[in-house]
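pinned: reference chain
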Amino acid sequence: MRIALLAGSCLLGLSFVSCGDTTSAVSAAPATAEDSFMAHVDCVKGNDVAGLLALAPADKLAEMRKAWESRPPMRDEEKAQMNMALNMALAPTGVDDIMAMAKPQLEQMNLEEMSQGVAFLGMMLGGSDLSEAEKTDMSEVLQGVTEWVKTSGLNDEVKCRQTLEHVVAGLKESGIKTADDLNALTFDQVLEKSGIALRVVKETTAVYGVNVDEFLGSFAAKAGAEDGAVDVSFKAFGKDRSFSVPMLKVGDQWVIDKQEKEAVAPVAAPAE
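pinned: its structure tokens
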């Protein structure tokens, strides 16, 4: 299973290091806080990582570009592990080979214990800076996730194979065959691959009944009572829910005001 994770990380990791440039579909900064929030949602829904990060302050984008361009070289042992993972995943029998390694671990997977872990997370979030209504919504969503884990089929061999097929197909589409291929990507080339990575994430979650785009499509935002606050509504587990996000204008961009309140992102609801 470790090989599968390494292979997937080569592609899926791009969605976390990608940064925006002038190719983004976002042509101008949203005028209001609520428009900015929905622009973030729309970019994720459209697999537009460039547009998503273009919504960040310019200095943050500059930091991301600098961090990528000044990253330390990959160690020999890291390259060897990555090459082994890629060679296995991209081989004609790649999915079969990885499934053979994953099968014993799938058999040992205890979904009941995993669901208890989600419940424990809910207990930790109980004391976070949320309103009573938000705590209720969060508790109900986490309870829904807890029940979903038990019946999700995360330990199902057929679903695991489907997930691996999506990851391998995405790797082939990306053109990344070796660790050197990955390391040689420029900042803007990473950007080009990131949409594939985000799409693959959605394809793999869909295997287990989680339709991310449908969930994102339920989001709506309006101006809150306080200056800069955004009241966000969405639907999860068959019920309308809501939470408030404090926003702060930095230059031309609206960003989440993390100093005022850490906004807790809701979990995508499995399809009913």
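why pinned: The chain has a mean pLDDT of 83. The two ends are 29 Å apart (CA to CA).
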